[in-house]
């Protein structure tokens, strides 16, 4: 947030990722939303169920709805470096890049894959130097910047694999006390 001088970050918890097998790759929505709220507490990150309420399924549609609803706000799309290799599979990814600047946040072990991503064949000409990060509100999209952050080796995939039932603590109803 500091590198881009953002007022706040909106964490959009998606009701479903079209590129993932929902049954196998995604925990229930309520659990993911509750978990995100716990992770973001005491920060300037605002967890949002906007995609669920707006009925959007694809990022380009979500951004269009956000820009329509909050037309006086400036948006930048934050994405992890680990998602860039699949970016070309997103619905109208070029349209999304034309709609808002993109900041790619470093993820340990993904630098080479991200730079070699198929989408980078087109995006490469729009790369901005990291030293210009604070000027992003002056950019015309398409624009993309790679930000190196302190390494966080936490892997959501790894966390889910180590505790496949993690989401149950957010979705299970509390037991009723029984009388002796």
Provide an overview of this structure.
The protein has 180 residues and is an alpha/beta fold. It has a single domain, classed as Rossmann fold. It has helices at residues 22-25, 29-40, 50-54, 59-69, 93-99, 111-115, 120-123, 156-162, 168-171, and strands at 9-12, 45-48, 77-80, 102-105, 127-128, 144-147. The strands form two sheets. It has a four-stranded parallel beta sheet with strand order 3-4-6-5, with no helix packed on it. The longest helix has 12 residues, at 29-40. The model is unreliable at 172-180 (pLDDT under 50).
CATH architecture descriptor name: 3-Layer(aba) Sandwich
Largest β-sheet summary: 4 strands, parallel
Shape: globular
Count every helix, treating DSSP H or I runs of 4 or more residues as helices: 9
- CATH superfamily assignment? HUPs
CATH topology: Rossmann fold
- Write down how many β-strands occur, each being a DSSP E stretch of 2 or more residues: 6
């Amino acid at each position: 947030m500091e590198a881009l001088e953002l007022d706040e970050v909106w964490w959009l918890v998606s009701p479903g990722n079209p590129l993932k097998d929902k049954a196998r790759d995604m925990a229930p929505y309520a659990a993911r939303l509750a978990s995100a709220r716990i992770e973001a507490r005491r920060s300037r990150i605002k967890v949002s169920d906007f995609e669920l309420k707006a009925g959007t399924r694809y990022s380009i549609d979500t951004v269009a709805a956000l820009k329509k609803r909050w037309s006086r706000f400036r948006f930048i799309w934050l994405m992890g470096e680990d998602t860039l290799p699949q970016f070309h599979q997103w619905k109208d990814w070029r349209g999304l890049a034309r709609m808002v600047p993109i900041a790619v946040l470093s993820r340990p072990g993904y630098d080479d894959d991200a730079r070699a991503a198929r989408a980078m064949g087109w995006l490469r000409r729009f790369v901005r130097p990291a030293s210009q990060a604070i000027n992003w509100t002056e950019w015309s999209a398409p624009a993309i910047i790679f930000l190196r952050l302190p390494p966080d080796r936490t892997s959501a995939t790894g966390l889910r694999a180590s505790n496949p039932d993690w989401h149950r603590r957010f979705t299970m109803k509390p037991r009723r006390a029984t009388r002796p």
